[in-house]
Every structure is written in C-alpha cells, then in structure tokens.
C-alpha cells in the first residue's frame, strides 16, 4: 500500500502516513534503519500526548517563529527522518523565515547527504547546505560535528528537529539559540533548548510556519512579546504532566 492508497477516513491515517514515509525514506536511501526505531519511539510519546498540539507547544511554536524572524542567520537542520516526514513543510518554513536548510547526519555518508539534498530540492528547496563540510561543531567527535562554515557554524539560531542531545549541548556551548522539536520532554535536546517544542514534527513545522506568516508584518515589539511570554521550563513540565496524566479512555468526540 502506498501513501496515496491509505484511506483518509482511517482512524490511524496520520500514523499510517508517517510510518509509510519513514519506510519509503529507508528505501530511497535518505533515512537510516535506526530512523525506524526513532520514529516508533516518537510515535509512542505522541500517543501518550493524545496526538495533539498542547497549548504550551503552540506557544513554543509561536515563540520559535518570532525568534526565527528576528534572527540574522537562521538555519534549519535536517536529518533523514525530517527529510522523509516533512520535506515540503521544511522548505515552506525556510521560505517563511528566510532560513537556510542544512543536512546534518549522525549516520553520515556523502551519498546520503546528496540524496537528502536532492529530495529537498524535489520539494522546492532552492539551495541546501551540508555538502561542503568545511566547518565544525567543537566537542563532537562523530559526523554530526561536520557542518558548513557558512551554515550551522555561522548561524545565530538553529532549529534542531528530533532527539539529538549531544549536538544540542554542543550547539549551546557555541552560544547558538536553539529551537528543538522533540516528543520526549525528558530528552537532553529539549532540556538544553532555548525553545523546546514538544510536538509531533508533522504538526510542529506547519504550525511554526503559520505563526511566522502571521507575525511577518507585526512590529518587533509584538515578536518580542511572543518570545518573552514563553517559558521553557513550564512547557516541559506541561508536556510531562500531559504524558503522566493522560488516559486511554475513549473520548465521546
């Protein structure tokens, strides 16, 4: 069954679509096999969250949009799962906030980087960084420490989708402002981030884009208010509470 063959009225439609995209990503050579495990782990947290965007997550997404709009050199980091799950949505966000897109992989090969870059271009990206590898993130001994000098290394704001604690800590040590999208509020990644978004990537990225478009014509003061109103610790606590207090009882709606 292909993605287009999944009936939209299936009660698990969104879940089935994301599973298919990850599987297709592996077959296309853009997603690692370990990405299948990461997707399953994230889906479990999303299930516990009720597969919904919490108000605290929406506040984080608004703050993220405001932060990206006020950044001098924002970069969206993309790995294999992100490329498989939300390629067009990532390109739309980059366009909305005038950010660069850079491929950055733990299971790095030059071939995978090229495949992901080509995949993003197929979904509308004009330029994709990550192919030069002429910069570094100090303190990382694995391949994710290899970045473009005019990309992540030079960025003032970096969007780090999905769990990656050691890189999040290393970017923090560089003084970067980090926006992390992660469904696990206990992970080092969101706990290191300036703006942790505890939400499903496929909801979070379009939400940030929508907020960015809304804030695009607003004054710097309005954008600053969106940033100042967000409390990272409260957002993490809210997400943890939602997971711990969630119920498996069927809703009447």
UniProtKB/TrEMBL annotation:
ATP binds at residues 19, 41, 182-184, 188-189, 200-201. Pathway: Cofactor biosynthesis; coenzyme A biosynthesis. GO terms for molecular function: acid-amino acid ligase activity; ATP binding. InterPro entries: PPS/PS, PPS/PS_sf. It holds the Pfam family PPS_PS. Keywords: ATP-binding, Coenzyme A biosynthesis, Ligase, Nucleotide-binding. It catalyses: (R)-4-phosphopantoate + beta-alanine + ATP = (R)-4'-phosphopantothenate + AMP + diphosphate + H(+). It comes from the Archaea. It is an enzyme of class 6 (ligase). Its EC number is 6.3.2.36. GO terms for biological process: coenzyme A biosynthetic process. Catalyzes the condensation of (R)-4-phosphopantoate and beta-alanine to 4'-phosphopantothenate in the CoA biosynthesis pathway. Homodimer. NCBIfam families: phpantohe_syn_Arch (NF041123), PRK13761.1 (NF010324). Belongs to the archaeal phosphopantothenate synthetase family. This is 4-phosphopantoate--beta-alanine ligase. It comes from Halorubrum saccharovorum.
């Amino acid at each position: 069954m292909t993605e287009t063959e999944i009936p939209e009225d299936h009660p698990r439609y969104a879940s089935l679509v994301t599973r298919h995209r990850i599987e297709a990503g592996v077959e296309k050579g853009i997603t690692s096999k370990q990405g299948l495990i990461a997707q399953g782990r994230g889906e479990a947290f999303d299930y516990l969250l009720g597969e919904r965007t919490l108000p605290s997550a929406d506040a984080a997404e608004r703050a993220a949009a405001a932060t990206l709009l006020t950044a001098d050199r924002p970069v969206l980091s993309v790995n294999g799962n992100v490329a498989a799950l939300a390629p067009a949505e990532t390109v739309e966000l980059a366009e909305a906030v005038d950010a660069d897109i850079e491929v950055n992989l733990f299971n790095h090969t030059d071939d995978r980087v090229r495949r992901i870059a080509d995949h993003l271009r197929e979904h509308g990206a004009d330029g994709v960084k990550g192919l030069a590898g002429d910069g570094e993130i100090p303190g990382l001994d694995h391949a994710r420490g290899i970045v473009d000098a005019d990309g992540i290394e030079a960025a003032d704001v970096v969007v780090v989708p999905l769990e990656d604690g050691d890189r999040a800590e290393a970017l923090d040590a560089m003084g970067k402002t980090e926006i992390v999208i992660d469904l696990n509020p206990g992970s080092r990644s969101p706990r290191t981030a300036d703006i942790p978004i505890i939400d499903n990537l496929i909801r979070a990225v379009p939400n940030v884009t929508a907020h960015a478009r809304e804030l695009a014509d607003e004054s710097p003061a309005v954008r600053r208010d969106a940033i100042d109103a967000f409390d990272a610790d409260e957002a993490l606590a809210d997400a943890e509470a939602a997971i711990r207090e969630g119920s498996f009882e069927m809703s009447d709606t």
